[in-house]
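F.,

This is the one I mentioned.
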């Protein structure tokens, strides 16, 4: 409840419509907080002030109450979306939810919008809060999806009825990050039936992008601004059937093994095999994206070896959430890893469990001892179940999430080299594999064992490629070796390089979309090959052909990484130049015929969807042959280059000027208003085309001097409009060419 003296007691709500994008009918409203007298008005300012004063929970409760009170006089069926912070929902008990529900009528359907930000702070409490809200009959929406990619990790567990796409997705540029978010959202919507809502729609372009992303509903200024509640004409919002409540049985008993074995017969295996299967799942998780959740339960504290600890530190670095439970588990068993100690008697304490959940991957393994470890190797036996069935994996992962407690504020200190580590691991590492007989191999290739280390060192030191070695056993993978070629290529001195992570070579034009996958492949023990922009010590960029390989010890653990680097700037520049020339005219630098035709075809396809018009304007320079004959071809080339610059300066932003060949140019004008159908003789599209033609002619009328002689250039032009004059690129250009010929013969 909001106290009488609270600064948030005067908070009020305004309501913004949410519409069906197919017919723009009103299906719901979203309640948005606004300040009262003496407080900030916008929700952003309100919550900024609340964070500064430590009263976010109180403000959130006041906003929720104000939103529901504003619906008190509504009659009929109404759906309202109400924002709520994850932390607030985590603490809403059954009694408080019942009190809030009494503020609305029977016909009011509440959808709680949980922001994607901070979802991972208290996941167990949040999921319990969601279940309590659903028990009350309320629905759940995940808000601002895409604002923080890691927040998508809990979507499979929350099972939201509605997923709201952040306005940055609707208005921003398409990137690999955008695609990763959309692919994850579409996959979840396909599995669960969740309804997609696009926020921030203000223009037709925003609407087109929202529909392309799969949104069924939308909101934004295009459909109505926030204001007084108006539900006239609202139709019922059809949401998917709520996910079923968790059934009683093995899950309620708290046993992951019983849950999985209820659907699959357990298999018996030795400890080394279970350890290898576990590490394979962990390696698979390293190759997934940052929306992944890795959860594990360990049976004994002694199982956490330094190698296991390093594996889980690596998992935490690339996943949204990595958490482990077990007897005596510290809050931070490894940097970035969330730990929870299981109480005595918890069924999970006797189980070996690992679960990996990503948007497009799910796997779980649960094992239980059937024979204790004996004195001989491999004496320990465990029954186990491995499944890739997503619903069953989610049940196991949900069970482990339910056990998590919020960690303390400070992470545990990383141990010094060789220091024993308290905590647990997924299970004991398998026995070390026998090392190969290196001496025999070396003799077979004719290099004595005593000479090989020095030979390899000299070979690496004198190699023409830049070679570096990083230590995988130390935090942040510091470089411990750099050869002369690397130092010469980058301009750094050896003492400026050693001890640093190689990210110091990155800069503003280094593609972050390449760096993340590289890191995941490295941590998974995979080779890396990529070409990316790096920077020398003097700040100059270069294209680096980079290859990285892991170096393993006798037990198969990664101890180092070796990187080979080659400056391929000249090669990339040549490739870019070739690509540029494939689409541009070498003389004028304008798009060439192939590029212009491809662009025109694209604009026609867009216009068919939007109902807009597209114009093709043909231009042919008048008397250009005389310039060539009188002043020579060099002067003619100069005249063409000058004409190209003048034409390009005369068109609107977004229009395209290209050279078809010789002295012919084509201008593509897109996004024009509809022409009104066949036979329409005038209209805004025609007026725009005429104005552009006038600008083009005036641009060419400027004086030009070639070879010391004044020259006057002019052009004939003709235009055709899609869809009125033609329906495909070739026909449209032919109509424009015919109009241009009529203009030339008439002058």
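My design for it:
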């Amino acid at each position: 409840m909001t106290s009488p003296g609270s600064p948030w007691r005067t908070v009020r709500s305004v309501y913004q419509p949410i519409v069906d994008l197919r017919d723009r009918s009103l299906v719901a409203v979203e309640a948005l907080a606004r300040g009262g007298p003496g407080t900030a008005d916008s929700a952003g300012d309100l919550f900024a002030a609340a964070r500064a004063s430590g009263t976010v929970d109180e403000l959130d409760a006041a906003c929720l109450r104000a939103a529901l009170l504003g619906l008190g006089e509504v009659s009929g069926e109404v759906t309202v979306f109400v924002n709520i912070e994850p932390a607030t929902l985590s603490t809403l008990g059954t009694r408080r939810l019942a009190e809030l529900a009494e503020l609305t009528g029977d016909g009011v359907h509440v959808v709680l919008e949980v922001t994607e930000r901070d979802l991972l702070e208290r996941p167990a409490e949040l999921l319990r809060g969601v279940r309590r809200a659903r028990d009350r009959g309320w629905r759940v929406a995940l808000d601002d999806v895409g604002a923080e990619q890691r927040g998508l990790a809990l979507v499979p567990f929350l099972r939201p009825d509605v997923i709201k796409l952040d306005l940055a997705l609707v208005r921003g540029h398409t990137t690999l990050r955008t695609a990763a978010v959309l692919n994850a959202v579409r996959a979840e919507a396909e599995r669960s039936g969740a309804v997609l809502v696009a926020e921030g729609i203000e223009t037709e372009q925003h609407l087109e992008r929202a529909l392309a992303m799969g949104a069924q509903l939308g909101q934004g200024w295009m459909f109505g601004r926030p204001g007084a509640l108006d539900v006239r004409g609202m139709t019922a919002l059809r949401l998917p059937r709520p996910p079923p409540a968790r059934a009683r049985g093995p899950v309620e008993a708290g046993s992951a093994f019983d849950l999985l074995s209820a659907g699959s017969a357990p298999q018996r295996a030795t400890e080394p095999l279970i350890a290898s299967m576990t590490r394979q799942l962990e390696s698979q998780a390293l190759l997934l994206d940052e929306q992944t959740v890795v959860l594990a339960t360990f049976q004994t504290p002694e199982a956490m070896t330094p190698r296991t600890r390093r594996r889980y530190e690596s998992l935490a670095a690339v996943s949204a959430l990595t958490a482990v439970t077990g007897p005596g588990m510290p809050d931070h068993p490894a940097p970035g890893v969330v730990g929870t100690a299981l109480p005595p008697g918890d069924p999970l304490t006797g189980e070996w469990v690992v679960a990996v959940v990503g948007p497009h991957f799910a796997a779980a393994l649960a094992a239980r001892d059937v024979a204790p470890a004996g004195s001989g190797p491999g004496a320990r036996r465990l029954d186990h179940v491995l499944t890739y069935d997503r619903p069953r994996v989610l049940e196991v992962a949900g069970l482990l999430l339910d056990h998590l407690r919020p960690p303390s504020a400070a992470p545990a200190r990383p141990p010094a080299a060789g220091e024993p580590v308290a905590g647990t691991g997924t299970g004991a590492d398998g026995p070390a594999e026998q090392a190969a007989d290196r001496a025999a191999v070396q003799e077979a290739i004719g290099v004595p064992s005593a000479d090989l280390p020095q030979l390899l060192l000299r070979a690496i030191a004198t190699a023409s490629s830049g070679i570096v070695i990083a230590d995988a056993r130390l935090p942040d993978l510091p470089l411990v070796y750099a050869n002369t070629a690397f130092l010469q290529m980058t301009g750094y001195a050896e003492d400026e390089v050693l001890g640093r992570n190689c990210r110091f070579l990155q800069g503003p034009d280094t593609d972050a979309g390449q760096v993340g996958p590289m890191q995941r492949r490295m941590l998974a023990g995979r080779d890396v090959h990529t070409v990316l922009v790096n920077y020398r010590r003097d700040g100059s960029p270069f294209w680096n052909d980079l290859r990285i390989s892991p170096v393993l010890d006798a037990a198969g653990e990664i101890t180092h990484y070796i990187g080979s680097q080659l400056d391929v700037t000249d090669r990339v520049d040549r490739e870019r130049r070739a690509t540029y020339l494939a689409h541009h005219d070498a003389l004028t630098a304008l798009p060439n015929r192939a590029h212009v035709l491809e662009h025109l075809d694209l604009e026609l396809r867009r216009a068919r969807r939007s109902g807009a018009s597209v114009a093709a304007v043909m231009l042919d320079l008048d008397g250009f042959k005389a310039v060539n004959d009188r002043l020579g071809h060099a002067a003619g080339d100069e005249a063409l280059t000058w004409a190209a610059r003048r034409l390009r300066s005369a068109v609107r932003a977004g229009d395209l000027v290209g050279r078809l060949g010789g002295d012919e140019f084509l201008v593509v004008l897109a996004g024009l208003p509809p022409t009104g159908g066949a036979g329409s003789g005038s209209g805004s599209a025609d007026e725009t085309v005429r104005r552009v033609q006038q600008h083009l002619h005036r641009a060419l009328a400027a004086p030009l001097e070639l070879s010391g002689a004044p020259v006057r250039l002019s052009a004939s032009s003709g235009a055709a409009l899609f869809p009125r004059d033609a329906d495909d690129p070739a026909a449209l250009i032919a109509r424009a060419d015919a109009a241009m010929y009529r203009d030339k013969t008439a002058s």
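The first strand starts at residue 12 and ends at 20.

Talk soon.
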